[in-house]
Design a protein that fits this description.
79 residues; 5-stranded antiparallel β-sheet; 3-stranded antiparallel β-sheet; 8 strands
Length: 79
């Protein structure tokens, strides 16, 4: 099973109050810009466990799932 890697996220809000993550800081302190958000839905992390809002993002040409669970952001990390 994968682990939850909690990350710091820089996010913005639109005029309707919807949150949009812009970048995140990985556990080694590298910062990654989110190029595009493809989808936002309520979903479970099948690899690391937990449920929340799942942001399907494009980061440097790769698809990344960024989860917002109980006001904390995480990404599924390898063991």
């Amino acid at each position: 099973m994968a682990r939850k890697v909690y990350v710091s996220v820089l996010a913005g809000f639109n005029t309707e109050g919807q949150i949009r993550p812009l970048s995140f800081e990985w556990e080694d302190e590298r910062t990654f810009e989110i190029d595009k958000i493809i989808d936002v839905c309520r979903a479970a992390s099948l690899k690391a466990g937990g449920i929340g809002l799942r942001y399907t993002c494009m980061v440097s040409g790769k698809q990344v799932y960024l989860f917002l669970e109980d006001n904390r952001w995480f990404i599924e990390g390898k063991d």
